[in-house]
Amino acid sequence: MIEIKDLCVRAGNFLLKEVNMCVPKSGYAVLMGKTGCGKTTLIECVCGLKRAQSGRVCFDGHDVTMLRPAERGVGYVPQDGAIFSTMKISEQLAFGPRVRGWKKTDALSRAEEIAEELGIVDLMNRYPEGLSGGERQRIALGRALSCRPQVLCLDEPLSALDDETREEICELIERLRRNHPFTALHITHSRAEAERLGDMVFVISPDGCLREDA
Amino acid sequence: MAVEAYKPSKVPSDVPFLTAIWGISGMYVLLIIAVLAADASYTSIHDLWVAVKDPNVRASIWLTLHTCTITAILSVFVSVPAGYVLARYNFPCKRLFDAIMDIPIVLPPLVIGLSLLILFNQVMIGGQSIEKWLGEWLGGLHAWNESIPSGVTYKVPAIILAQFTVSCAFAVRTMRNTFDGIHPRQEEVAMTLGCARSGAFWLIALPQAARGVIAAGTLAWARALGEFGPVLVFAGATRGSTEVLATTVFLEITIGNIEGAVAVSFLMIAVAIMVLTAVRFLGMRQTI
Fold first, then answer.
1. Which residues of B touch A75 (CB under 8 A)?
2. Where are the domains of chain B?
3. Are the CB atoms for A97 and A148 separated by under 8 Å?
4. pLDDT tens per residue across all 288 residues of chain B
5. Which of A90, B7, B59, B195 has minimal Cβ neighbours within 10 Å of its Cβ?
6. CB contact under 8 A, A47 and B188
7. B44-287 domain in CATH 1.10.3720.10?
8. DSSP state of A121
9. What is the DSSP-derived secondary structure letter of residue A207?
């Protein structure tokens, strides 16, 4: 469960004020709003990448507001995937488990397991150069899920994809939801995507206020 | 209906622009070639051979290679964290911090040498100059092993310090530009996956900055090779002791041996081209 209470975050001159939201355990919330209204700022705050000015962020009842990103147990899929440019795909998928202290063999078998689930086994020995947008998003999703996070944050993961690939990734996200018990927060500009994937839709207004969309 | 002939829109020709950019770049390349050709016309294989056979010049070549390499390593060691701090963090007085790092670039080299001389010999700490403090400490090491210098001023450490003070500023600028060009998003993702900031730096940022590190190191090395003013003032120009190739050129000129000075200059050019090509080649291979 993601619970945000009276959260205020500043990003430059922009202030996201008194945000309140609750996403139930294993729920899938979609966050919408105009460009520059603070959606990414909010998701970065949930991940611990941006410090809150006031308010609280709780995961499953535990206050994580002051915890560092690594301590939160969150998976993060940024808009461009942010694939590690100097690592093979297999190393990217094993990266999270490795830095969390898993044995190398366990981390690699976890990477293989997730690669199979995401249909990217053929890419395991490749470097990211030359990958398509869809492949990048699959890898970013796999990497984020490799440590079995309780919360998954997706920042416009489908925005740069063609229609066919978007459909594939949507189906993949739906399948992942059935197989993994994460609670998700997903940013999008597409109403159709929000209605298809989300259990609930939140909208941030241009003045930085958040409301649940009926 | 009669078909009208297609009339393309009028756009200015690209020729003047292309002529200008190629012409300006070409003129600069020509200037460098002209300078090298002028040197070549003033020396001969015999002069070069005489210079290479001179034990003072040979000692100077080795000392230059040693000091430049140590300077480049020290510059990389300092410039990587400094460049990372400037690129990734906002803090009070950041502009001042940044401007201070640029001072060695804009100061006349002689002033840097003079300032180092004053810092080590005139600034007193606990009633003693820094040179004396270091002299006492290094003196003990020197008694144990004679290859360790017994002080800083007018000795080999002064050469390295003088070269480092200037070269490091260029390396910091290179590393800052390198880290500025790497989006922090990958490091942020690494932090959500379980890395501390240090882990994100070592595992994600630094491997991406590998080419920048090589560029900073080679720039520092090349800059140290040409450093003359601060070395002359802070380390002196004692034959066989604190003589690097740049000071050799100066010493040869002062005794009227212009042919020798030009021959040593040619050696500097050859050494620089060989080292820089080797480092770049190795760097390319490693980062592909």
1. 192
2. 44-287
3. no
4. 666 788 888 898 999 999 999 999 999 999 999 998 988 888 888 888 888 888 988 999 999 999 999 999 999 999 999 999 999 999 999 999 999 999 999 999 899 999 999 999 988 888 888 888 888 878 777 778 777 777 888 999 999 999 999 999 999 999 999 999 999 999 999 999 999 999 999 999 999 999 899 989 999 999 999 899 999 999 988 888 889 999 999 988 988 888 888 988 988 888 888 877 877 776 655 443
5. B7
6. yes
7. yes
8. G
9. T
Total count of domains within chain A: 1
Report the candidate in A49, A136, A98 with the shortest Cα–Cα distance to residue B191. A49
Please tell me which residue of chain A has the smallest CA distance to B183: A82
Selected residues 71-90 of chain A with any CB under 8 Å from a CB in chain B: 72, 74-76, 78, 80, 82-86
**Chain A residues within an 8 Å CB radius of B181:** none
Tokens of B223: 């800059």
Distance in angstroms (rounded) separating the CA atoms of residues B54 and B50: 6
User: Tokens at residue B208, please?
Assistant: 């991406």
Contacts of B194 in chain A (CB under 8 A): 70, 96, 99-100, 147
CB contacts < 8 A, A to B, total 67
Residue whose token pair is 């990211």: A128
Contact A70 B193 (CB under 8 A): yes
Residue A6: inside a domain: yes
Place of tokens 């001389």: B117
